[in-house]
Amino acid sequence: MSNEADAVATLSMPLPAYRVVGVERRRQTSAMLIFETLRAEIVALDLPPGTPLQEKMLLERFAVSRTPVREALIRLTELGLVDVFPQSGTFVSRVPVTAIPEAVLVRKALEGITVEAAAASGDPRRGLRLDAVILRQQIAAEHGELGLFHEADEAFHAEIAAIGGHPGIWRLLAQVKVQIDRARRLTLPVLGRTHSVIAEHRIIRDAIVRGDRDAALAAMTDHLGAVIPDVAELRGRFPDYFA
């Protein structure tokens, strides 16, 4: 098999179910499905900040009644992803810069627990498990597949939580870090951080495999802290995207 075919095969492999954030599709109500779909599109910037979310358009798109659409929009508003202005309409919210440092602090605290636990786990396959995700991420970067790169990035952190025996922490963080994720979707293509992220992941991986809890924690802390200066630069480039 050629290198190109190997790369395509690697990117096509599905990620384990525990890495996918959200409820099980087979049990979703209409409101859940609309919420999950719009949430993913907002985080991926397929629906950028300021995009109007017209009820009529959503009714036609999802072929549902008003109730599930309104329920989904309420949940998105609670997450801070949608703003409702009574006299103007409903819009995708701008990324609140002031919320990001606090979210980073929460993420550092909780992922500090998972990375230390992973380093202390003694799992003989932990290196292989992390290498598989890093390889997928590297191939995605080389092919310019930023969506798949982000998916693999999520999988790397989820894998660490699973190795450490705390997969529930990652599911909790998915809600906490939603504004960070929106900023990162700009950071990757604009600031060219893909190679830096992979290098940082390898440092974390190596510390975990050595069983060095202190080094693993320090590497994770440095890695997660990089988002704050990135956001400061992005705000200057995309003032309309940030609040």
Radius of gyration over alpha carbons?
A: 19 Å
CATH superfamily of the largest domain: GntR ligand-binding domain-like
The secondary-structure element order is: HHHHEEHHHHHHHH
Based on the structure given, which CATH architecture of the largest domain is correct? Up-down Bundle
Give the structural class: mainly alpha
Portion of residues in beta strands equals under 5%
State the helix count. 12
Count of all domains = 2
Regions with little confidence, pLDDT below 50 for 5+ residues: 16-27
Protein name: DNA-binding GntR family transcriptional regulator
Keywords: DNA-binding, Transcription, Transcription regulation
Pfam families: FCD, GntR
GO molecular function: DNA binding; DNA-binding transcription factor activity
How does this model look, in words?
GO terms for molecular function: DNA binding; DNA-binding transcription factor activity. The protein has a two-stranded antiparallel ribbon. It has 243 residues and is mainly α. It has twelve helices and two strands; from the N terminus they run ααααββαααααααα. The N and C termini lie far apart (49 Å). It is globular and about 55 Å long. Mean pLDDT is 87; it is low at 16-27. It folds into two domains: 30-92, Arc Repressor Mutant, subunit A (Orthogonal Bundle); 98-237, GntR ligand-binding domain-like (Four Helix Bundle (Hemerythrin (Met), subunit A), Up-down Bundle). Helix 2 packs across helix 4, helix 5 packs antiparallel against helix 11 (213-225) and helix 6 (126-142) packs antiparallel against helix 7 (146-163). 33% of the residues are buried.
